[in-house]
Write a structure and sequence with these properties.
The protein is of the alpha+beta class and about 140 residues long. It has helices at about 15-25, 50-60, 80-90; strands at about 5-10, 30-35, 35-40, 45-50, 70-75, 95-100, 110-115, 120-125, 130, 135.
Length: about 140
Amino acid sequence: MQQQVSVITLGVSDLERSRRFYVEGFGWMPVFQNDEIVFYQMNGFVLGTWLAACLATDMQREGLARPGAFALAHNVQGREAVQPLLERLSNHGGRILKAATEPPHGGLSGYVADPDDHAWEIAWNPAWAISPEGLVTFGL
């Protein structure tokens, strides 16, 4: 079976507050939006932010867990881009969880939570190549 992720959907409590974080913070542009959901075309998949109650109804689940035991990551092209992006996201509704530090394997990374407490790692890893299309290749 092909290894791929098609869509990642995050449950959010306030769609406009979430939209501000992703549009004004990251600078991403929605490809579709309505009163319940916003979709962003990513590099090879789609990211959705959907009102949590609607997502729960669609999954036929109650009480979606918060915060999740996972982190999403956004890799940047250079070390100098990590801290400014953490600050920009913080200024647009995010909350810095961990300031930028140098992990043992090299590079620079920090964590920010979106307005719904979804954790995002903002990272530069010199061993991971990023193509002009934004595709990241695992490297050692």
